[in-house]
Amino acid sequence: MKNIRFLILGIFFAIVLSKTQAISWYRFYEMFTFQSFHMFGIIGGAVVISMVFMQLFKSGKIKDINGNKIVPKPKQKGFIRTILGGTFFGLGWGISGACAAPIFVILGFKLIPAIILLVGALLGAFIYGLLSKKLPN
Amino acid sequence: MDFILQPWPWYVGGPLIAISLLLYFYFGKNFGASTNFDTLCTMAGAGKVSDYFKKDWKERDFALLFVVGLIIGGFISAYYLIPNETIDLNPKTAQELLDLGFLNVGNQYFPDEIFGEEAYTSLKGFLVLLVSGVLIGFGTRYAGGCTSGHAITGLSSLQLPSLLAVIGFFIGGIIATWFLIPLLF
């Protein structure tokens, strides 16, 4: 049951996203129209502070709970997959105002619409799985 | 207590998200959210149709618990922590949305035009959400990550694929908000 810590972290992360309005459709609309600093401040702030953590992981000053060096998984390379995949995701994100983690958080706010989003997301992941070998990288 | 119930500013959100990432890695796992879409497909039996989903989902039990936490945290926030969902919108943004015909702009987190009853009483409302979901699921898996995995984890660890993915996120997001939203509403 040591994984229970991930459950607690999930609750914490959901509360942070909810309280900072980082799950709100309006906040992402504002972000994509560049009319507000709020989301750029949140994501930019998270990235800058995480960079410091990444350096501490790299130098071994912060190790994981088992004493192992922390190495973030390298992301799959490929120009088309990242730009095109990213664009598809951005389209869905821009229309619905939801990215991956918030879909689960929104269940608490708007149950049925969030279930529709989630079913769609699973369908989308399923379609990707079927086509994964045929898609350009 | 007052602080808990007020909306939290961006300079509180950024550090707390970074701390979430730190703890996720400290607990020994790679921070991200969208791989869970694959895992849920595997649990639903997608492995019978495609080898891509032939994985042992039990290896990702930690991530599934994180997802359960996200759901619980969403309910706790919605019912106990946000007495007032008003969004302090840029007046320009609010006016733009009013011009598009949105009502109650900024008075709640989720506009009724997308998250209201229409989502399950009209075909258009249903499809707007379902297709968005499909794009989110397909796009995150093709790109290899979402806001957590690419924008935060990937950018902060200086990975080029994540920079490309984030550029893609904005291409899609800008097309959606500048062109598709006015077209749809």
Concise structural overview:
The complex is a heterodimer of chains A (137) and B (185). With 137 residues, chain A is mostly helical. Chain A has helices spanning 4-19, 25-32, 38-58, 79-96, 100-106, 111-131.
Helix/strand-derived category of chain B reads mainly alpha
Distance between the termini of chain A: 39 Å
* Biggest beta-sheet profile of chain B: none
Order of helices and strands of chain A: HHHHHH
Principal-axis shape of chain A equals globular
Number of helices of chain B: 10
Q: Could you tell me which chain pair has the largest interface and how many residues each side has?
A: A-B, 113 and 129 residues
Strand content of chain A: under 5%
Give the mean pLDDT of chain B.
95
Q: What is the count of helical runs of chain A?
A: 6
Mean pLDDT level of chain A = 96
The residue fraction in helices of chain B comes out at 55-70%
Count of extended strands of chain B: 0
> If you compute it from the alpha carbons, what radius of gyration of chain A comes out, rounded to the nearest whole angstrom?
17 Å
Uncertain stretches of 5 or more adjacent residues of chain A? none
Q: What ranges of chain B have pLDDT less than 50 throughout 5 or more consecutive residues?
A: none
**Roughly how many Å apart are the termini of chain B?**
39 Å
Shape of chain B: globular
Q: Roughly how much helix do the residues of chain A carry, as a percent range?
A: 55-70%
Give a quick account of the main beta sheet of chain A: strands, pairing sense, barrel closure. Answer: none
Radius of gyration of chain B: 19 Å
